Each structure stands twice: as C-alpha cells, then as structure tokens.
C-alpha cells in the first residue's frame, strides 16, 4: 500500500473508538498476576536455579500468555481470568490449610517490599506489549485508546505509570522539607531527563513523519512531558505537606477542583473539533488541561504507597494483612466510584477527569492488594521460626526472593526497558505495514520483540548493570 494511504488507514483505525467496559479491561490485567503466582510455585517446586532455563520458563508462562490474551484470545479474557483465580485459590488453600496455627508468628521483611517490584514491573510489561500489539489487526479495537470517553486497555498506560511512580515515592521527614530556590532547582534538574526525552520524541516523530493522533496529548506534548510535569509539581507539593495523612485530602480537593473546572467549560474547549490549534496552549490542550488530574492521581498514589510500605524491620502477619485489607477496601471504594462518576461525568483519559483517576486507582490498588496477599502467602508457607531484628540484620536468608527474574530485571531498568520498547515499536512500524499483516506474522513479531526486550534487561540485571540517567 502507498505510504500516504497506509498512514491514513493507520490513523483512521485509532479514531472514533468508544472502548469497552471497566471489568473487561481489568480481566486483561488480572491474569498476569495469577500467572506470576503459578510461575513462582512451579520454579520453587522444580528448584530451577539455572538462569537461562528460569528465564525461558518465566517468559513462556508470564509474557507469552499475555501476548496471546490481548490479541487472539481476547474474547476469552473473562474465562481465563476466572479459571486462573479458581486454580490460584485452590492451590493457596491446599497449602495453608494445615498451617493456620502459625499465623501469629509469621513475619514479613519490612524494607524494600517485593510486591511493589511486581506491581511496577507488571505495568512496564503490559505497556510494552500493548504499544506494539495495538498496531496489528489482531489487537481488538475496543481495547485501543478511546477518542473522548470510555474504557480502553491502552488508556490506562499513562495513568498506571503515574500510579507506579507514586506508590514508591519516599516521603521525606518534615524537618528535611524546605521549599526554597535550591530545592526547586534540584527537583527541576531531576525531571530534566524526562523533559529531554519528551522533546526528543517530538522531534524524532516529526522528522520521520511518524503516524500520531494529536488528540492523545496534543501536537507537541507527549507521555514523557506529562510525567515530568507531574513529578515536578508532585514533589514540590509533598515538600509543602508535612503530614502524609493530609495528602489524601489534598488529592481529593485538587480532583474536585479539576472536575469543577472541566464542567465550567474547559472540557468543551478541549474536546471540541471546532477549536483550532493555532496557539501553543490550544495545540496541546489535552496534555496541559489533564495535568491537574494526573497530579491528583500521583498524590493519591503516594498516600497508598505510604499506607502499604512499612517502616519497621519486621512486620508481623496480622499487621501486614491489615494493610493489604485496607488497600483492598480502597480498591473496592474506587470501583464503586467509577460507576458513580460514569453516570455523572463519564470516564475520559484525554481530560484525566475524576472518573479516570478513580479507575486507575481501582486497578492499581487491586493489583497491589493481590500482590500483597501473594507476598504474605509466600512467607506463610515457607515460615520457619520467628526472628528478632538483630537476627535479621545478621542474616541474608530472611528475605525470600520470590519475584520472577523477568520482573526483577524489568523493574531494575524500567526506564531503559520502556525506551527500548518505544524504539523497537517505531522500528517495526517503519519496516512493516503492520495493519496489513495476518495473525501468524503479528504474533511472531510481537513475541520476538518481547523476547529481545526481556533478554536485554535480564542480561543487564544478571550482570548487575543499572542504567540511570539521573
């Protein structure tokens, strides 16, 4: 097909999409969580320590099934999710039924919770698969980004990145929070790499005449610039708030103000096809107007991270379980709020409105709670004897490294993983007219692409190489 005609076809495939349902989107997110559960079980039982073999097992049980789930098996997402849930529940009950008397003595390490590694790596993994898969005909159109309102699997990408950055934000002690010129400059420098990536992406796509849909963020704006602005504003906001408990009220207040401004006419201005992109603000209105919503999402995620991340060396099982239960309750409240907001405001990624923020928090909190229950399960079934803080400091075997190698590697070099995924996605789209390929060719390309990505980050992780640019 002629390149100009193909570009028109590609852009038309991304337009006028009203999405699917919130439950259907979550049914595509939940199966990888249960896949991790069963993969960890298998590796533990089979005592697989050989790194290449372990990598292949994890790749075949975690990565490839997700590739199939969002392409040729998407119609079976609900059945697959329910089946994996039932199998996981049966397996868990079978292993803990004779150990309930040990519950008061089970201990979980307090620092560097591994469930956060799983959450962040899973966000990166799902995004990497979807950004390429969406360019093939086998990816269902209802899961692509929505035009204005609705639920799409591709809509949750930027939101979950904001969430995953928020839950690992380290709240500084009150005495260290001094907001002055030096602090502002330091925060600006820390966000500079993301800004540079954003500018680089704009110039690269512009030079290559790469197909883009301006209604996503605008003409010049993109994912990296949004993340940079949210990180900058969120960090300075946290320096002003001295009590982490207060941050949830700040997030709610900001979200309500954002929704009110949208209803006062801002949303009509942003979504109107008659609004010309003649000025910088008008050209990038989606990216700029959505910033307060993403900032509120970031602050709410910081609060969730503060709730789940313990400060003590040892966390007893009951206390850890209460934290997981609290996050599960937060998730349930957010799921309820989704449908309240849907009736009142709608769900819009372009606006990052109240409904969208609650949707992302519902997914993020649900996945976090599931991995917290999984971590507690791991320490419960492998419990040996109680340890004191002094004993833990003197031994290295208290922390059970259950996280799959692939997820550890992705989390260790998350930004590098995402950048390489974007570059390879662009390369594939420049070499192939992806929408014209059949299912077999599409699955081969996506599978090979994910294999190369996972091999690259695992090689770096095994060799203790961590690439950071700030």
TrEMBL record:
Its EC number is 2.3.-.-. Pathway: Glycolipid biosynthesis; glycosylphosphatidylinositol-anchor biosynthesis. The chain crosses the membrane at residues 25-46, 53-70, 76-94, 115-137, 149-171, 183-204, 219-237, 249-271, 291-308, 320-338, 358-381, 441-462. Its main location: endoplasmic reticulum. The keyword Transmembrane applies. A acetyltransferase, which acetylates the inositol ring of phosphatidylinositol during biosynthesis of GPI-anchor. It is a multi-pass membrane protein. It is an enzyme of class 2 (transferase). The lineage of its organism: Eukaryota, Metazoa, Ecdysozoa, Arthropoda, Hexapoda. It comes from the Eukaryota. GO terms for biological process: GPI anchor biosynthetic process. Keywords: Acyltransferase, Endoplasmic reticulum, GPI-anchor biosynthesis, Membrane, Transferase, Transmembrane, Transmembrane helix. This is Phosphatidylinositol-glycan biosynthesis class W protein. Belongs to the PIGW family.
